Here is the input.
Amino acid sequence: MLKERRPIIAGNWKMFKTVPEAVSFAQELKGATVGLTGIEVAVCPPFTALVPLAIALQGTDIAAGAQDVYWEDKGAFTGEISPVMLKDAGCRYVIIGHSERRQFFGETDETVNRKVRAVLPHGLIPIMCVGERLEEREAGVTREVVHNQTVAGLAGLAPEQVAGLVIAYEPVWAIGTGKTASEEDAQQVIGYIRAMIKDLYGGDAAGRVRIQYGGSVKPGNTAGLMAMPDIDGALVGGASLAVESFLGIIKAAAGYRKS
Here is the structure.
């Protein structure tokens, strides 16, 4: 199956790996992906490893990404990191609004939107996360939750800007639990997001925006997810921490690339 949108597999390392571990991983991964085309790969380490990881990945198509960002370019904001700093560190992508940021650090739809709008002028590509909690799923309000998060997160953007970013649908109940939404369930929600983008921003934006699935993605379930017409890749957590499993996901996804 061929897709018009280039699939993207992004590894979110969360709070794992020291600098030497990150560099070792990068060197092994870039050696294992030589000659692999038609798919985009990004690795999002902790802030401490961003610069050495980006240096280690130079000369490859593997991108470095950050796990969060602040919406100001500079200032007295202790502990934060700006889009300017991320660009300078060698980032291409930045994860915004991950459910753990929402759950543990007070991220809101408003702050997600501020961050999305802040990184675009610097050439950074947001991976904007949306998804429902278990109680919301059981209450039957998945679409309402995802709709509200998507509309709020993209507020104020032009269709061309929406077309160029990445949206990650990550059902919170599937993150780090070993539970994965079925291929059909994931497709249903992601297809709904794409239809929503079409209504809000037009058919061109809907056809070009890449929408990932995130939530206990593994080499064994990647091909089935990627076979769905609207799923353009994966935001990978635990399975991105080992080269073997991350590479398995990349190769499975590459089978559904555009020729």
The chain has a mean pLDDT of 94.
